[in-house]
Predict the structure.
Amino acid sequence: MGFFTEYLADPSTRATLIDQSLEHVTLTAVPVLSATVIGLLLGILAHRVPTVRQPILSVVSTFLTIPSLALFALLIPIVGIGATPAIVALTMYALLPIVRNTVSGLASVDRAVVESAKGMGMTATTRLLRIELPNAWPVMLAGVRVATLLTIGIAAIAALVGGPGLGQEIFSGIRRIPAAGSLEALLGGTLFIVALALLFDLLYLAIGRLTIPRGIRD
Amino acid sequence: MTDRANADTAVSPAAAEGTGSSVMIDLIELTKRFPGTQDPAVDRLTLQIPRGEIVVFVGPSGCGKTTSLKMINRIIEPTSGSIVIDGEDVTTIDPNRLRRRIGYVIQQIGLFPHVTIEENVATVPKLLGWDRDRIHARVDELLDVVGLDPEIYRQRYPKELSGGQRQRVGVARALAADPPVLLMDEPFGAIDPITRTRLQNEFLRLQAELQKTIAFVTHDIDEAIKMGDRIAILREHSHIAQFATPEEILTQPANEFVEDFVGTGATLKRLKLSRVREVDYTTDALTGRIDEPREVLRRRLHESEWTAILLLDADGRPQRWLRGPDFLHDRPVTQLGLPARAFVEGHATLSDALEEMLLGSAGVAIVVDNRGSYLGILDIDDIITSIQTMRDADAEFHRAAKLVDPLDEVAE
Ligand SMILES: Nc1ncnc2c1ncn2[C@@H]1O[C@H](COP(=O)(O)OP(=O)(O)O)[C@@H](O)[C@H]1O
Ligand SMILES: [Mg+2]
């Protein structure tokens, strides 16, 4: 383990890792936020209009089957090099868990609850905002969390197409194998990604505590 | 549903508004054909629900009761026919406006799990734009009316309540904006039998004050007889087999379907129609205060014709039954004899009273008022006498019917 502590002790390495971590956070947060907005709308649409439900789910599932490296590369001619292709691609990947959990979250709301809301004269919009979404929220939030973890991992690959983030440190290591220091870089980048994932998990725990209504928290 | 004074101020009688006509809900040729089905689920249902009455829709499973009910607030849109409520044709008005005037209670209750009891009850007043103080006062009032202490339950969540308590909240929520009409679909169906009986009784007591116009669905003929001012016995496609008062249904079933549906034991069922307060129960039974000296109590019993004395507490609530030999034991009065059991209130049915007696194994039920204070004693002979009276009345009725029949034929 000695070789690794030496690597981490180097101030310039640490500065690089921290810079790249911040880039990585942005590279995760932007796609996840975009996917949450788009996924929520698609999920609500799929819930409300049964005929488009299957098409929507099929399309967002297909996104996830495209190999990430291929998708990044395919996007370069369209959106150029750098962070943009990565952000677009990661948004596409993050959609599936969010759309699917929005649909299943809304479907899981007790029919009697929705019917009684309707019976009391709530309009469809009020019902969605005041009854259906709050009750679907725990499942939806779980979808956003899965999307985040997925994105943190796949974001590392962005470095291969000139993107930012901790992927750069990992691939700098991979390219130099078996040269001295290559293994450390590989390990260092990976370790920071795992740490970021844990931090995000804690963040979601806190968001859950703050936003899930007490009556449906278990 | 205890606080009578509160209930009075809580809800003005439905009769205060509207056209004043005696028909509140008028269903005309109401029909529902679900897409992709051959036969209509409800076929030309025509029925009038009088203002201030409970009309029960009862019939075998799948006969169209729920569909009929849900067409009244257009949760299910009718295929054809019309709905007139309080003189207004509501078949095509904005359904949300319609629904805010109709209380809706379903078997699964459907309380909103993510908000407090207070917010649940406040739903319709909020939709109607009441101000906060008025809503707050109204919620407390209603929780009181359904027998839940607002201080304790206002801030609770549905998951923290028992099934019976949730159903009470469901009723409070439906009554929140004081709608003149209530629709209830098997409201007590998913509740254990003992709690169900209690909720039924409480609801009847509440209804006596509120006088809402109520369409009530059940598949249970006993519940129909107990709850209904009138009963519509429905068969397939919501065809009406008979629409009449419970008494008529029991004494003059219109056809074989009704006879079969009502089943045997019509006399026993009629016990569910007679209330304790209508019976001549004993009001001069021997009583004493539990804090009186035992010698005084013993002497009073000894000098009376009674075999037992009923001891009451300071508020007149029955505590213990003491017989002569019980005084031989050298124990405080509070430990002598048997604890008083089998309490019934005046509005309880004779059937409830009979059940209490059998459970209490004393052969008598103690009649109490709504605070639990002693009013009198009902014994099993009182019930037998009342069955005898019903039988005689029936026999007379049938004789009378036979005499009238030939005349009818002549008239036609
Ligand atoms: N949404 C629906 N689509 C098709 N058929 C339905 C639907 N709802 C009810 N039905 C049918 O209509 C008939 C009456 O149902 P319902 O009103 O629920 O009966 P009940 O409440 O008397 O048990 C049944 O045959 C039922 O299968
Ligand atoms: Mg039903």
